[in-house]
Amino acid sequence: MIYLNGQFMPLEEARVPVLDRGFIFGDGVYELIPVYSRRPFRLVEHLQRLEHSLRGIRLPNPHTPDEWSRLIQEVIARNPWEDQAVYLQVTRGVAKRDHAFPVDVQPTVFIMANPLSTPPRTQVERGVACITAADNRWLRCNIKSISLIANVLLRQLAADAGAIETILLRDGFLTEGSASNVFVVRDDMLLAPPQNHLILPGITYDVVLELAQSGGVPFEVREVSEFELRSAQEVMLTSSTKEILPVVEIDGRKVGAGRPGPVFERLYRLYQDFKAQVMRAPERPQALAG
């Protein structure tokens, strides 16, 4: 079951007019929220990022956080899977084709859920291969826009090469992956590119840094050069669906020893513990007032 413009319905019954600006221009934003044991992961942070993206494209938010939460929880409840990936999208709505913003047009709001697919055990245990490419996207990568053709083309480069992800470089420095954030380990220090207009502010990125701090893993948030990426002891990908994934090969060359390293293994355990203890923990009953 999905939600579209005020109605819940089967996906097969959903219809969007061809003049929707999401279809014509890619004029909209989206979020993807992982759900564990029917509990959306960091929903507040995802909704804050949605608000940031909507402001970035000058589109008023059609719902309050409480309204979004109710809609998302209802979509979760109407679907059969315990673990889900909830996708929500807001476009500027249906209007005559014109680049300028339409006036007095209602946005299109769409929410759907799919089974949550996380990396198979073999990828976690053996690591994955990536390639690199020049980051030729626009300069507002901190907006989670549905206009993803640049990311699609970059991700296809990896698919064509039999790799999992394309790691992006701009002016000699690491930005992110085509659909993930990227961490590097050098001299036993976890390095994270700073969140700015050139990368998406990843929710899992934030969790990894929080876990590194609480788990005693030294880290720095700073620009990471291409040389540091290519000579790293370890490289990791993070995203809502990849969680934390070790990279053992870049452009056909081994990363470090060519197998998942100790910093990844430490962070992966911390992440799985966090997921089990926080995300899958049953709700605690609230104490009654008085």
Brief sketch in words of this structure:
The chain is an alpha+beta fold. Helices cover about 30% and strands about 30% of the residues.
Q: What proportion of the residues form beta strands (DSSP E)?
A: 25-35%
Mean pLDDT: 95
CATH evolutionary superfamily of the largest domain: D-amino Acid Aminotransferase, subunit A, domain 2
Instruction: Note the main sheet.
Output: 9 strands, mixed
Which segments are poorly predicted (pLDDT under 50) over 5 or more consecutive residues?
A: 284-290
How helical, in percent, are the residues? Answer: 25-40%
CATH structural fold name of the largest domain: D-amino Acid Aminotransferase, Chain A, domain 2
Spatial separation of the terminal alpha carbons: 41 Å
Order of helices and strands: EEHEEHHEEHEHEEEEHEHEEEH
The first-level CATH class name of the largest domain? Alpha Beta
Count of distinct structural domains: 2
What is the 3D shape? globular
CATH architecture descriptor name of the largest domain = Alpha-Beta Barrel
Tally of strands: 15
Count of helical regions: 8
Radius of gyration: 20 Å
Structural class estimated from helices and strands: alpha+beta
